[in-house]
Amino acid sequence: MKKVIIIGAGPAGLTAAYELLKDNKDEYEVIILEENTQVGGISKTVRYNGNRMDIGGHRFFSKDENVMKFWSELMPIQGDPSIDDKILGREKTLEKGGPNPEKTDEVMLVRNRVSRIYYLKKFFDYPISLKVKTFTNMGLFRTIAAGFSYLKSMIVKKEETSLENFYINRFGKKLYSMFFEKYTEKLWGRHPSKISADWGAQRVKGLSIKEVLKDMFNKLFNRKKKGNTETSLIEEFWYPKYGPGQLWETLAARVIEKGGKIRMECSVKNINTANGKIVSVDLEHNGNVETLTGDIFISSMPIKDLVSGMKGDTVPEEMLKIATGLPYRDFMTLGLLVKRINLKNKTKIKTLGNIVPDCWIYVQEPGVKIGRIQVFNNWSPYMVEKPEDTVWMGLEYFCNEGDEYWNMPEKEFADFAINELVKMKIVNKEDVLDSHLEKVKKAYPAYFDTYENMDELISYLNTFSNLYCIGRNGQHRYNNMDHSMVTGMEAAKNIKSGIETRDNIWNVNTEKEYHEKKEVKNDNSN
Predict the structure, then answer these.
(1) Kindly report the CA angle at 151 between 149 and 156, in degrees rounded to 5?
(2) CA angle 301-304-309, nearest 5°?
(3) By the 8 A CB rule, do 405 and 330 touch?
(4) Comparing C-alpha atoms, which of 18, 68, 16 is closest to residue 515?
(5) Mean pLDDT estimate for the chain
(6) Under DSSP, is residue 438 helix (H, G, I), strand (E, B) or coil?
(7) Contact, 14 vs 252, CB < 8 A?
(8) In this predicted structure, what is the pLDDT of residue 232?
(9) Domain 1-41+63-106+242-324+452-526, what fold?
């Protein structure tokens, strides 16, 4: 029996473990080491005072049919986007001391995909649509300028040496400056001209004004989609009743049923190497250090930490320099419970309590630091203890570990965030009921600094014959959940089949047209 050590119990690590165990229970001993108290990585669900938080928002969709099948087999699909009024009987069940619905109702809801941009104190569709409302919100001058700017971008193409040029080629400079430039700089802490176009190739892919026009005409003439709709244009997605963490907790239980072990609060400190192989890891648990040997090692820990933690064979100085120089963007989200919000629902979408239907609101308003607002009621009413009477939001901020926002005491940061919402006239201070702050280190692998030398580092890591790097941080790639899962699937396939190359694992989510052009979105921007 081969002993497989998996570092990290996120989507990638859990998927790899399950794939190894499902048909070969007696061939592999699988041990997952997770440094936190919950599985799911940044896809976990945080519970606080009867309410639940989705850290960053996770829409369940993939063009990869294996992933969709995987999800639906774990949690059957149920319901339609307008069932909120019907499914809230679960409070009555709990009040009467009935069965816990989290144990009996492991299902996915089908949800409306509504994400809009809040700019000029008005709502714009995200991605930008070409509706009359868009033009009236923009005003005549901005509309004319945007039109000519886009026409110019169709004729004069910029070399895509930066994310800025990537966006301008697809939307024109005017729309780029209105809807992409400042938000992207807020997200990354760098101007888009200083960021690699690779980020756009992975996250935006085929989205452009051309795709928006094509989608608009398809809807206008009631043409059926042929499976190639850009992900950002889809209208529905799946979502576990109790948040994304519910699915990963379900998968973790399946891994254990198959004989796998998941050791929580085990932080990997050192990766011990010898003769071009990983031989063991040193882990810390409850203050004690333990060495765990293995035959195969699958890592979803940040590459920066993986390489800097290698002991034994000397890591080449240049490889260490590249790894330690890889940048990240950290993340803070403030759960905010309020009696009501001031934004009016002027759409045709019915919502519980008639709140705005948005899952995410991208904030483009000048003069505020907030990046996005999640409305958890719209992800699933089961995320909220009293969805009929309260609105539970997630206020998302992008920052760097150790900066002034990261170091703010929770009460001070909550006051700061609330004041920003008041400034934007979204809430009244007297309507705030409760708040809770969550911080996530290394949430966003970034595409600048030593990232340009990433291929060299990948070649070096591939020299370790029993090491497989998977997942978002394990590959330093801004993957969605499905991409991370596929890296785990590919690693498991290689291990079981004796495939030596790692190319298929590293190539997940590198093709411009990858898996994201279908009917439903997994734009889990985390």
Answers:
(1) 90
(2) 80
(3) no
(4) 68
(5) 87
(6) strand
(7) yes
(8) 47
(9) FAD/NAD(P)-binding domain (3.50.50)
Q: Express each pLDDT in 325-350 by its tens digit.
A: 999 999 999 999 999 999 999 888 88
Distance CA 282, CA 299 (A): 14
Confidence category of residue 143, pLDDT binned at 50, 70, 90: confident
Each residue of 73-85: pLDDT tens digit? 999 887 554 445 4
Is the pLDDT reported for residue 234 higher than 90? no
Query: Which residue spans within 251-345 are E strands per DSSP?
Result: 261-264, 267-274, 277-285, 288-293, 296-299, 310-311, 328-338
Say if residue 475 is exposed, middle or buried (CB neighbours under 10 Å; 0-12, 13-18, 19+).
Answer: buried
| Separation between Cα atoms, residue 362 and residue 123, nearest integer Å | 9
Closest by CA position to 65, among listed 520, 386, 526: 520
What fold, for 328-445?
A: Polyamine Oxidase; Chain A, domain 2 (3.90.660)
**Does residue 35 contact residue 265 with C-beta atoms inside 8 Å?**
yes
What is the domain partition of the chain in residue ranges? Answer: 1-41+63-106+242-324+452-526, 116-233, 328-445
Which residues fall within 8 angstroms of residue 485, CB to CB, at 6 or more apart?
A: 11, 12, 15, 67, 70
What is the torsional sign of CA 214, 216, 220, 224? positive
On whether the CB atoms of residues 116 and 362 are closer than 8 A, the answer is: yes
Q: Determine the Cα angle at 317 with ends 316 and 322, to 5°.
A: 100
Centroid of chain to Cα 128: 21
Taking only the tens place, the pLDDT of each residue in 62-109 is 889 999 999 999 998 875 544 454 545 544 333 333 334 444 578 888
Sole residue written with tokens 């000048």: 366
- Pairing type for strands 296-299 and 467-469 reads parallel
pLDDT category, 273, cuts 50, 70, 90? very high
Cα 132 to the center of its chain, rounded Å: 31
Asked if 450 contacts 322 with a C-beta cutoff of 8 angstroms, the reply is yes
In sign, the C-alpha dihedral spanning 439, 441, 445, 450 is: positive
